[in-house]
Specification:
103 residues, mainly alpha, 0% strand
Length: 103
């Protein structure tokens, strides 16, 4: 997966504004991994997700393999946020990551 990251000004780096420490990020990732293990990695799709996936398949020509990968990415995002279901926002973010990989 490739993610485009915007550039940051030197002053913003030195001031450390809006940054998470590595320890905080590590705790969040470890908690998400534990949730994934407890749920065996699977989360239900929230309302509206099926229609969003149908549109993605029909309009973007998404394959079954890509569909599965998008759901896996959306699940990971939901786990990182501590959510119990995959939301449309999680799917949209997963679709955006897929789009970035296709450029």
């Amino acid at each position: 997966m490739h993610v485009t990251v915007p550039s940051v000004k030197y002053r913003e780096i030195m001031e450390g504004k809006n940054s998470e420490s590595s320890a905080t990020i590590r705790e969040r990732v470890e908690a998400a991994r534990e949730r994934q293990r407890a749920r065996k990695g699977k989360l239900p799709l929230g309302s509206g997700c099926q229609s969003l996936l149908r549109e993605a398949i029909d309009q973007m020509g998404i394959s079954l393999r890509a569909h599965d990968r998008i759901i896996k990415v959306a699940q990971t995002i939901a786990h990182l946020e501590g959510q119990e279901t995959i939301s449309e926002d999680h799917l949209i973010e997963g679709l955006n990551y897929r789009g970035a990989n296709k450029l």
